[in-house]
Amino acid sequence: MENVLRPAVVVCAVLILTLLAGRLLDLLLRQADARHTETPLWGLLRRCNPPFRLVLATAALQAAYRPARILPGHAAAVGHVLTLVQIASTAWLLVRIATAVVDSAYARYAASAPDDPRVRRVRTQVTLIQRALTAVAVVVAAAAMLLTFPAMRTVGASVLASAGVLGIVAGIAAQSTLGNLFAGLQIAFGDTVRIGDTVVVDKEWGKVEEITLTFLVVRTWDERRITMPVSYFTSKPYENWSRGGSQMTGTVFLHLDHSAPLALMRDKLAELLKEIPEWDGRTGGLAVTDTTPNTILVRAAVSAKDGDDLWTVRCAVRERLITWLSAEHPYALPRVTTAEAPPRD
User: Fold this and answer.
1) 151-245 and 248-332 share one CATH topology?
2) Which of 19, 84, 117, 121 is the most buried (most CB within 10 A)?
3) Sign (positive/negative) of CA torsion 43, 49, 50, 52?
4) CA 210 to each of CA 119, 120, 125, 188, 196: distance values in angstroms, whole numbers, following the listed order
5) Which of 228, 175, 179, 183 lies closest to 206, judged by CA?
6) b (16+ CB within 10 A) / e for 3-21
7) Which fold is adopted by the domain 248-332?
8) Are 19 and 32 in contact (CB under 8 A)?
9) What is the crossing angle of helices 49-64 and 75-112, to 10°?
């Protein structure tokens, strides 16, 4: 009976201790978050409670499993499993802490920085740094777990001896992956494209939704997602409409008759732009840019704070000008001049 009761008591005591410690930590972080409203760090650190409890429980079991005679016939296996869990939970805890610190620093920077492009640049860098740190933590934790197996320690010397050859082979085999990896780091710190930028790639217009170390996702205007390797943005030309600021100027072209009332159209354009909330007030002009024997080409230049609003302004101006011309000045619309064919002799 004692062989069953003692392990059960120890396991229950460890669970109760873990739950109480986690509850106490969460209470302290709540109080710190309430006192220090200028930073979200303490609130973000509450995400570390699950890995903290797992680390604490594993450490307590490692110290007590032998005296408590938990599975005494398999003590070595129990100790090995607890060691593996301890390594994994510690890596999990460190990743959560690092993520909380980085997210807190970014949140405070974003709240104090008025420059939206700079904020998006920092957000891109922070995202890629977090992914890199997570990848490093996972690799190190996996390597540490593998080294707990005696067979892996035995072959360690031979693995190190052949590391040079394996590295060359792996580098050749993963040339594309490594190229994307370095391209991702170049994008993060070279400030060529950022999360939230409006770009045109392969004649597709959209916003950068996600950037990882190997691929980039562009969300198009019709809600499609285009996934591209990040090396594309370091080796091929593309349009970045948000580079140097998100403000943009666009054009609306109309083919009209030579008798179109240009002065009235300029006044109407100014009136229409004031009624369009997406117009930012920077640019709003109208000019004749070309002429043909049958029509003239009228260009209306408009502006907006970003690409999405510019598209809305252009569509609204085109639609309302055409509607106004059709209703008030139909003679200004293009016409096809016809004449009767001369009779044959």
Assistant:
1) no
2) 121
3) positive
4) 15, 12, 12, 12, 8
5) 228
6) eeeebeebbeebeeebeeb
7) Alpha-Beta Plaits (3.30.70)
8) no
9) 160
User: 192: which 2 tokens?
Assistant: 């060529």
Q: Which two tokens stand for residue 262?
A: 């240009």
- In contact, 140 and 91? CB cutoff 8 Å: yes
For residue 287, the 8-state DSSP code is: E
User: d(Cα 339, Cα 330) in Å, to the nearest integer?
Assistant: 21
Q: What span, in angstroms and rounded, lies between the C-alpha atoms of 77 and 318?
A: 75
pLDDT tens, residue order, the chain (345 aa): 456 677 777 778 888 888 888 889 888 888 888 888 777 888 888 888 888 888 888 888 888 777 766 777 777 887 888 888 888 999 988 888 888 888 887 787 777 766 666 676 677 777 777 777 888 888 888 888 887 777 666 554 444 444 444 454 444 444 455 555 666 666 666 667 778 888 888 888 888 888 776 778 888 878 888 888 877 777 787 787 777 666 788 899 999 999 899 999 999 999 999 999 999 888 889 999 999 888 999 999 999 888 788 889 999 999 999 999 999 999 999 877 666 666 765
CA distance 249 to 210: 26
Domain ranges of the chain: 2-112, 151-245, 248-332
Fill in the DSSP letter of residue 251. Answer: E
Backbone angles phi, psi at 107, to 5 degrees: -65, -40
The DSSP 8-state label assigned to residue 342 in this structure reads P
Main-chain dihedrals φ then ψ at residue 190, nearest 5 degrees: -90, -10
Neighbours of 42 (CB within 10 A): 19
Please tell us whether the domain made up of 151-245 is placed in CATH 3.20.20.150: no
Those residues with Cβ within 8 angstroms of residue 40's Cβ, 6 or more apart along the chain or in another chain: 33, 103, 104, 107, 108
Distance between CA atoms of residues 219 and 227, nearest Å: 9
The rounded distance, in Å, linking the Cα atoms of 248 and 208 is 17
At residue 176, the 3 state secondary structure works out as helix
Cα distance between residue 113 and residue 75, in whole Å: 56
Cα gap 214→141, rounded to integer Å = 22
Task: Tokens 């117009």: give the residue.
Answer: 279
